[in-house]
Amino acid sequence: xxxxxxxxxxxxxxxxxxxxxxxxxxxxxxxxxxxxxxxxxxxxxxxxxxxxxxxxxxxxxxxxxxxxxxxxxxxxxxxxxxxxxxxxxxxxxxxxxxxxxxxxxxxxxxxxxxxxxxxxxxxxxxxxxxxxxxxxxxxxxxxxxxxxxxxxxxxxxxxxxxxxxxxxxxxxxxxxxxxxxxxxxxxxxxxxxxxxxxxxxxxxxxxxxxxxxxxxxxxxxxxxxxxxxxxxxxxxxxxxxxxxxxxxxxxxxxxxxxxxxxxxxxxxxxxxxxxxxxxxxxxxxxxxxxxxxxxxxxxxxxxxxxxxxxxxxxxxxxxxxxxxxxxxxxxxxxxxxxxxxxxxxxxxxxxxxxxxxxxxxxxxxxxxxxxxxxxxxxxxxxxxxxxxxxxxxxx
DNA sequence: AAACGCAACAACCGCAGTCTG
DNA sequence: ACAGACTGCGGTTGTTGCGTT
Length: 395
What we know:
disordered C terminus; DNA-binding; repeat; transcription regulation; Homeodomain-like_sf
């Protein structure tokens, strides 16, 4: 289907906005609201197309925009969310109050991406560059290869999950009941989806579906290989694992160790922190999904996965102790920063601190779970109770 | 002081999804 | 159901300012 241009290009001004133009636009919107962007320029006396006005307003003139240097917390959030969401700037922006997607995108492209690259981390995949052997320790080539391989698998799982998410997201919103459910106050769409309500009417699920999908996909071992021996991702994280019965064609990936931040060589300012952040960014929770007993089998991916009542994923104590009380307190950044600060035992470990052997036998399982449980409870709170309109909770 | 290169940021472009008549 | 309008989004480009030579 052909599209007409958004506006008549002839005679319209392009390029940087002048203060006079800004003033006109501000004054008009202040008085009338923006209404239809197409008709706005004419009404406001601007020789601009509506799209240009909208962008100027959205990215620059809006009163609720914070400008200036990004804080460390904001940088952390961007990196973490970028690892999680990729170049979904609008989604990332919803968790950075008063920052626009355009600003975040620019900051990423001009600052963070370069810093990651200098740290030997591929800013696209958030994994060590393949030529970054120097970043690895002397533990041996096999470990290096394993780590890199696992990171690649992780990324593959992530992409796979996102692709399926996109394909199937529409299916989630087809029935009137679903639409009604989505209107429940203080519930993100994912949290208020009808199947969730049916399964757990009093509590939203504890899991961002993408995260769940990643874990489920990633968690399932392939071809034996010792099974799901390690859940340590990026840093020194190992997580309690779930057992999932696939009835469909969910992708199966091997599970091995992944690199930690222990092997850094580059030590420029901020880079160590960045590497650790990346390590954390791939720390995804594992959910005790309990598929064996769930009548809704894993037919084909995200859609089915979202059926699961995620209360099952956590211990009763975790449900009782941390979530509801804290679910909506504090901004995402505040809580995320606190989260990072409180997760030092895996965020950038000295010497790696591998919690698992290669055969899937782990020492200190319970302790580790107890230590990290709150971390993941918190992070799930963050994704389950996003700011209004947050795509973290589904479009 | 001028020229050049680079970084940072604003703005544009075009695609895709949604809305509406 | 369809077409056009509208909007959101991400990639890319253009401009500007600053530092270096």
